[in-house]
């Protein structure tokens, strides 16, 4: 990891602390993992929409006093992880040693999110083709106004290359079918 001090023109920042917000991502991911199923339960493939709600924290803002554009993308990543968990895809990827890769992400920003402001990030899986999954992301503020919108394209990659989306979907459908057929432990 690169360390040192950066002169921003206003103050010196230790880049090891400020420039790397990995710890914040880990805390948010742990919280997501602990609360995903309790919050909303399983997600079926016929309803691939997901929403995460958050609040702008001190380490989310940049020198302009609003949420950093990179943080928007991080929240989109967390939203996808939540979808992976709730559909069962996360478990399948771990077992088969698959990994998700974002090949394209574009975001347009319309309004700022300030420190302490709540927001909502909606994500929907729009469609897939022979190689890619296509998603749409929309951030809104508490009044419902759109703050940012974006699209992303992703693949699931295995040891032999890209896994066709139809194979991924079939694996999730089989997993969900198996999960609903298990007798309850009452």
Largest sheet: 6 strands, antiparallel
Using the CA coordinates, give the radius of gyration: 18 Å
What is the ordering of alpha helices and beta strands? EEHEHHEEEEEH
Structural class category = alpha+beta
Quaternary class: single chain
Helical run tally: 4
Low-pLDDT stretches = 1-21
The fold-level CATH name is: Thiol Ester Dehydrase, Chain A
CATH classification class: Alpha Beta
- Overall strand count: 8
Envelope shape: elongated
Total tally of structural domains: 1
Quote the beta fraction.
Answer: 25-35%
Q: Distance between termini?
A: 50 Å
CATH architecture: Roll
Mean pLDDT: 81
- CATH homologous superfamily title: Hotdog Thioesterase
Helix content: 25-40%
List keywords for this structure.
alpha+beta, six-stranded antiparallel sheet, two-stranded antiparallel ribbon, 8 strands, 34% helix, disordered N terminus
């Amino acid at each position: 990891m690169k360390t040192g001090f950066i002169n921003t023109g206003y103050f010196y920042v230790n880049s090891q602390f400020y420039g790397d917000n990995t710890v914040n991502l880990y805390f948010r991911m742990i919280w997501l993992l602990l609360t995903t199923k309790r919050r909303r339960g399983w997600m079926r493939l016929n309803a691939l929409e997901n929403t995460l709600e958050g609040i702008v924290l001190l380490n989310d803002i940049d020198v302009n006093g609003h949420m950093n554009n990179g943080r928007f993308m991080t929240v989109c990543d967390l939203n996808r992880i939540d979808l992976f968990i709730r559909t069962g895809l996360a478990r399948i990827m771990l077992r088969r040693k698959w990994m998700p890769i974002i090949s394209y992400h574009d975001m347009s920003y319309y309004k700022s999110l300030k420190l302490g402001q709540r927001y909502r990030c909606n994500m929907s899986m729009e469609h897939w083709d022979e190689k890619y999954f296509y998603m749409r992301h929309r951030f809104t503020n508490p009044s419902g106004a759109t703050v940012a919108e974006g699209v992303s394209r992703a693949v699931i990659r295995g040891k032999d290359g890209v896994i066709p989306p139809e194979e991924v979907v079939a694996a999730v459908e089989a997993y969900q079918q198996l999960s609903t057929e298990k007798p309850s432990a009452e």
